[in-house]
Amino acid sequence: MKNTFKQIFRTANFLIGFIIISIVLLFITIYPIFNPGNPLRMIGQDSFTPPGTYFSLYDSLDVSHVYTFRLEGADDNRIYAKLSDTDREHIKEWLLLFNDYDDIFEIRAEDIDLEDTEGLLGLWWEHFDPEVRFDNMTIAERRVFARLDVNMDRLFDFYDKEVWMYNPESGESEYLKSVGTLDYVNVSDVANVRILPLGTDNFGRDTLKQLVSAIGTSLMIGLIAGLIATGLGLLLGLIAGYIGGIVDDFIMFFTNLFTVIPGIVLLILISYSIGQEHRGATTVALVIGLTSWVWTTRAVRAQVMSLRNRDHVNLSKLSGHSMPKIVVKDILPYIASYVVMAFILQVSSGILAEAGLSMLGLGPATTESATLGLMMNWALRYNAHLSGAWWAYYPVILVIALISFALNMINTGLDRVFNPQLRG
């Protein structure tokens, strides 16, 4: 046994998969300690808040000590931030229209860099003319460009901002303080600061916190589904392979029947019939497990049929050992490694099956807990891909792929150790 474990951990494939799974398990165990609470709690008022560090603007006004910095490029950063993506697109649109209007001016779409703030402003101020009238342009469209031109001058308005506070006793606003362009506060002095590495989702929930919870729930679903599918497949495969005869025919009839019907169709029909309010994570795992045992049954049956007439098995029969004892002591140890590998694949298949069901809206109840599939469903339903909210779905896709990759690497590593045909 000791030598077997050494061989397993010396296999590169197994080691890579084991390290990835260990890191994932360690992360989902430790992270909730530092960020406890309900992962489905809504903390944001807006949909798809981008990743970043957020501090209370209200609390920042109460910071007692204000520091003065003359940081190089600060004004440029302010201009860059004030010129929105929409404004940049409008500048590009006007320049291309002017290119068609003016025979002398020549510019191509690929020559306009939307990230080059200085270049965009230079082209705008050099060529924009409010008197120019393009063909087929409506009055509303002309007003858009006119307002944009007015806003261009405001980009450089860096005046001190005055903060006034309403006094309910006097009924008037009173001057509180002024904020200059050189004033800075230390974030550690602000009372409320929140770091959102993956922003928030469409409901204003912390995406990373939700993702950590979803990984744990999906792994639980995969484990339960894997245990049910592997256990059921192992039991039926052992009975059919060892007893044979009419029992084998009966079991294989139902196995072949389930083989003909696609598993995803059964999953969809059963999940739909249960109803959303009754579909918890455990229920979904049970459904997946009860529809995934077929190939394990067939594989175990084939293994047992090749073992049941071996000399050590016949010797146990002649010794008067009972069938359960023969199966447990003389057959099961020979297929144990295969059963473990089948279980790993069933876990991976269970996670992917849950993701597929949830994408179709047939996953666990959305109010109970998050799963990887539900997060993908929410992102798709609320158009995260159209909103540019990559943090709502890319991390989920990466985690699903990473877990499946790791489990398959572990399975490949075990196969190299236990499969005589692959030993080198």
Pick out its properties.
single chain, 424 residues, two-stranded antiparallel ribbon, 17 helices, 62% helix, 6% strand
Short structural description:
This protein is mostly helical and 424 residues long.
What level of helicity do the residues show?
Answer: 55-70%
H/E topology pattern: HHEHEHHHHEEEEHHHHHHHHHH
The oligomerization state is single chain
Percent of residues in beta strands? 5-15%
Low-confidence stretches: none
- The average pLDDT is 87
**Structural shape:** elongated
Counting H and I runs of at least 4 residues, what is the number of helices? 17
Rg (CA only) = 32 Å
Q: What do we call the CATH homologous superfamily of the largest domain?
A: MetI-like
CATH class category name of the largest domain: Mainly Alpha
Number of domains: 2
Q: Major sheet, described briefly?
A: 2 strands, antiparallel
Description:
- It is a single chain.
- The protein is mostly helical.
- The protein has 2 domains: 256 residues, Orthogonal Bundle (MetI-like fold); 71 residues.
- Helix content is 62%, strand content 6%.
- β3 and β4 form a beta hairpin.
- The protein is elongated.
- The model has no long low-confidence stretch (mean pLDDT 87).
